[in-house]
Amino acid sequence: MVHRRFSWPFGGQRASFCGSFTGWRECPMGLVGTEFQVVFDLPPGLYQMPPEPPSRNSGMQIAVFRHRVSEILLHNTIYDVVPVSSKIAILDARLPVKQAFNIMHDEGLALVPLWDDGQGTVTGMLTASDFVLILRKLQRNIRVLGHEELEMHSVSAWKEAKLQYYGGADVAGMQRRPLVHVKDSDNLRDVALTIIQNEISSVPIFKSSTDISGIPLLNLATLPGILKFLCSKLQEQPEGYPILRNQISSIPIGTWSQHTGRASTRQLRTSGLSAPLITCLDFLLEDRISSIPIVADNGSLVDVYSLSDIMALAKNDVYACIELEQLTVENALELQYQVNGRRQCHTCLSTSTLLEVLDQLSVPGVRRLVVIEPMTRFVQGIISLRDAITFLLG
Fold first, then answer.
1. Rounded CA gap, 13 and 315, in Å?
2. Whose CB has fewer CB within 10 Å in the chain, the N or C terminal residue?
3. In contact, 217 and 206? CB cutoff 8 Å
4. Hey, do 78-227 and 241-393 end up sharing a CATH topology, with the first three levels equal?
5. pTM to 2 decimals?
């Protein structure tokens, strides 16, 4: 006799199994961990069994996986991902724009909360996108806000002027709205959805208690922190999530090039080294994306230019000495390397598994993976943190 185990890892409230060795009578399966199992003591021989379960990339399997992910996130709060000990930078909204961006560059910050002393709370965020918009304004309408005025123009005044200057343009983030925030008691699923639905990269965490003394801001919630926590939970029982072994080429995740034959909700943007940087920045703002792959003439990956890379122009007031319209992507990358040194371009293959991709994206500092062909490094697609969380939550 030989013990043979059969399993059903696709979820459900109950499961049963049958075959020629049971007389085609259904035998109940027991729940072991996250999957249903049953063991039969069979003599050697040939047996008939029901058809195989649905293919691993079936819609049902994805739906079951998303349900389990949502359960994990729903049963944990933001406290589970916030470091026990950490520091957070907050800038006074009355600071001059130039000083604020210099601080952001020196501290390596792509965004920072703004404190309004009059209201006694955090009322907004200053981001790399703001720096891009200021540069566009300086270059295209120098009389409105001269370089020297950046030393006197406050951040709060710039925020107000931004609405007036770009109010009629199709530029991301131009709507006047209250500060998007979450409470420390919110579950991780709601926090992740807040970040995704508002197309932001981080969200302030406010105290939920009635004690209004002191600064209400506890920390910033980010997608990397949520994904890292989720990956640690999934890896506790990886055998219970078979979809994690699927190749990303079979999963609806990320943005893909048309030549791959895969459909994407948005167009995959790439830029050449000789393209004007201003065009690249316009793509980033208009498409509401954080980065764009930079390719050589043959389409192979060279690097990735991100919105946060624009902060390199804040060092030594480089932005005041250049013509943004004349600056190429190659020039901008060279400035970036001079300021911050060479960096690794994080990539994956279309044959990479979902688990491998999630593991890479959960590493601090890795916010996106460029999908490349292994031999040519030709860009096939890009998978961002936002893409990963959007897929996981459905």
1. 59
2. N
3. yes
4. yes
5. 0.78
